[in-house]
Input
Amino acid sequence: MVDTKANCDRHGEQELAIACIHVCRSLDSRDDVGFYWDPDSNGARHDAWCHACEQWSLANPDESPEVWMKVTEFQFLCVRCWDEAKARYTQPKS
Ligand SMILES: [Zn+2]
Ligand SMILES: [Zn+2]
Output
C-alpha cells in the first residue's frame, strides 16, 4: 500500500480521497462545479469529479482511462474535505 494519509491544512492528518482538480479547487474558490462520484471505486471515499468532467465523460464514452485522467487531473484531498464538497452539493437547494 502507498501512504494513504493526507496532512490537510484544515483537518490535520486524515485518510486520502481522490477528486478531480476542479472539485479540489472549488473547496477554496467556492465555485459551484458540481459533484459526481463513482460508486464502484475503492478507497476511503469514492473517486469524485465535477460537472464539466461528467459532461466530458458522457460526450466521450469510448475514450481511454489515460485521457480521462488528463481531463480530470485527479488530486488527493483529505476525506473531510471530500465530505465537505459532497455535503455542499447534496444539500437541498433552498
Ligand atoms: Zn472536473
Ligand atoms: Zn481537509
